[in-house]
Amino acid sequence: MNISNLFKIAWKAILLNKTRTMLTMLGIIIGVASVIAMLAIGEGSKESIKKNISSMGANMITIRPGAGMMGGVRTSDQTSMQSLKLSDYAAIKEQSVLIKNVSPLVNGSGQVISGAYNWPTSIYGASPEYLSIREWNVESGVIFDQSDVNSYAKVAVIGKTIQENLFPNGEDPIGKSIRFNSIPFKIIGVLTEKGENTFGQDQDDIIIAPYTTIQKRILAQNYLQSIVASALSEDQAERAVNEITAILEKTHNIDPSEDNDFNVSSQQEIINTFSSTSEMLTVLLVAIAGISLLVGGIGIMNIMYVSVKERTKEIGLRMAIGAKGKFILMQFLIESVLISVTGGLLGVLLGLITTFIISTFLGWPVSITSFSIILSFIVCTITGVFFGWYPARKASASDPITALRYE
Amino acid sequence: MDKPIIKITELTREFRMGDETVRALRGTDLTISPGEFVTIMGTSGSGKSTLLNILGCLDKPTSGIYELDGISVKNLTKDELAEIRNTKIGFIFQSYNLLARTSAIENVELPLLYNSKESAAERKERAAEALKKVGMESRMYHIPSQLSGGQQQRVAIARSLVNNPVILLADEATGNLDTRTSYEVMQLFQELNDNGITIGFVTHETDIAQFSKRTVVLRDGLITEDKNITERFIAIEELKKLPKTS
Ligand SMILES: Nc1ncnc2c1ncn2[C@@H]1O[C@H](COP(=O)(O)OP(=O)(O)O)[C@@H](O)[C@H]1O
Ligand SMILES: [Mg+2]
């Protein structure tokens, strides 16, 4: 007996029951397709979050006031929110060897006015290094320099959205004056357009000016909302985080038993936070899809079981003319594996098409990994063997005479 | 005399039904030699099918000895029995037992799929040859539902022949057929026997038994009569005697 004969026998049986086989397959097809589509959506959103956060500057390190993060939310009271000072910025700048650039950051929101036009927005106060930390550039004009910082200069770099709303007629904004909360600023540069970030914020709706100017003239505060820095390289980011933490613990005189009143995090940690959220979502989606695959598997078992019952006489005949029990077992096992593997292949195809439709028509980020295809394929084959085994086993244990008498 | 194909001694077969025991065979002796054409006769329930199933290795005796073609069947495993059924025995059933929606040639091929190492082409050839022997060469690609009862039984006989078995065993092979068709099938069996094939044939109809060479009568699980047929029917002649319209 060779195995190809058994394949032939099983294949013939499948062909004799085309409609029923197709319906059985449908369960597997839908199961596999949804696993693939769900994994593609989950994987895609994870990648897009990662890409977006990295595009904010892969080496970026953020120092915020207040104690640690709790599920992405800072848990702090009013005074601890004011714990970062310019002296911290100076200490980091002076002592840290693992960072390339560092900038203090203060921000306020208000109304910006130019002639007859006005626009509600945020203004950021930073050092000239801020743009290189964020990996931002000016499209026209220049960035303010250290002497502007020292002289509390009322100069600003604006984002594209500000330009479009304050100068809708296309005139060159460089050299023009705008007023933010009634303080006049001279525009010296326009930032390159960046679009929205992962969280839907318009990154071009921004004004950046020297931090000294903003602290003194707009906010009248002596603390910083945050300090941002860039590590020498992405690999050094974690070490830089530790270095900065150590520096600040010293300048803040924090006892080892106390909680820090600041928080240093690298971009990687932010990525991890969001990735783990999207990972949870992926697990959930795949679990649901997995259940539909399981239901598909039970469908196979059901059909194989009915098929064995219905073909009892046929099994009896096959045994009477010399089929051994194991051949009958193999025949039914091959049948169920053929159904599940064929269903799996069609499911992969449908999954790819669905994913393509989702990304094309809904514009969702998707990413198909060979892992997801291999995984669902293996699951499919196992499903076929697992759910085909019991009915096949039952068939092979038949007694030929009893089976032949079955009506 | 040739070495017997079938030799049974003191064969019994009991069925347990709860605490009741049905003794279907109660010590049967029978020898069938090559070239014989034996009918096993008896009323319904006399044990004919039980005996034939044991002869066909579909069932095992409760006690006694059974030697088929020199092999003692008693201690063989299920798989070994399956192999014997496949290579040494051609079994023919009352209800044909062809696979539905499957062509005649594929039905005939079936036993070959379970053992030989022949190629698909060789299998086809042997199946076609067997169909030719039973006069069905023009219906090779018909499926059972497109064939009459007699034709289906011919296909079933072709299937039993395809592995060149040492004996054909038929259980009421003409039981579902009208007289004319039955006689035509008996004509085929006579032809096959004339060509040297050994046949064991179960029936309860006396006229059918007249076509064979020897009759064994079973009664309540015991052989009560074993005689050679003296006035043997020749199928071609008997067919001529039948009214034309039947
Ligand atoms: N599987 C079985 N279980 C119980 N009793 C059986 C079984 N097969 C046959 N018998 C009994 O054995 C006896 C002989 O049956 P069988 O060989 O089928 O008779 P025949 O074929 O001559 O009509 C009957 O009494 C029948 O009821
Ligand atoms: Mg019977």
From TrEMBL, chain A:
Q: Which UniProt keywords apply?
A: Cell membrane, Membrane, Transmembrane, Transmembrane helix
**Annotated transmembrane regions:** 21-42, 280-306, 327-358, 364-390
What the entry lists under Pfam families is as follows: FtsX (PF02687), MacB_PCD (PF12704)
Q: Which residues form the MacB-like periplasmic core domain?
A: 21-246
Q: Which domain of life is it from?
A: Bacteria
Keyword Iron-sulfur among record annotations: no
Q: Which residues form the ABC3 transporter permease C-terminal domain?
A: 287-399
- What is the protein's membrane topology class? Multi-pass membrane protein
Tell me the GO molecular function terms: transmembrane transporter activity
Classification via InterPro entries:
ABC3_permease_C, MacB_PCD, Macrolide_Exporter_MacB
Which compartment or compartments is the protein found in?
Cell membrane
One GO CC term, this protein? plasma membrane
Entry's family note: Belongs to the ABC-4 integral membrane protein family.
Name listed for the protein in its UniProt record: Putative ABC transport system permease protein
From TrEMBL, chain B:
Q: One Pfam match, by short name?
A: ABC_tran
**Gene3D superfamilies named in the record:** P-loop containing nucleotide triphosphate hydrolases (3.40.50.300)
Among InterPro entries, the record links this protein to: AAA+_ATPase (IPR003593), ABC_transporter-like_ATP-bd (IPR003439), ABC_transporter-like_CS (IPR017871), ABC_transpr_LolD-like (IPR015854), MacB-like_ATP-bd (IPR017911), P-loop_NTPase (IPR027417)
- Annotated ABC transporter domain ranges read 6-245
Query: Could you confirm whether the keyword Nucleotidyltransferase appears in this record?
Result: no
One cellular component term from this protein's GO annotations in UniProt:
membrane protein complex
Keyword tags: ATP-binding, Nucleotide-binding, Transport
Gene Ontology molecular function, alphabetical: ATP binding; ATP hydrolysis activity; transmembrane transporter activity
Domain of life, source organism: Bacteria
What protein family does this chain belong to?
Belongs to the ABC transporter superfamily. Macrolide exporter (TC 3.A.1.122) family.
Task: Report the protein name in the record.
Answer: Putative ABC transport system ATP-binding protein
Species of origin reads Paenimyroides marinum
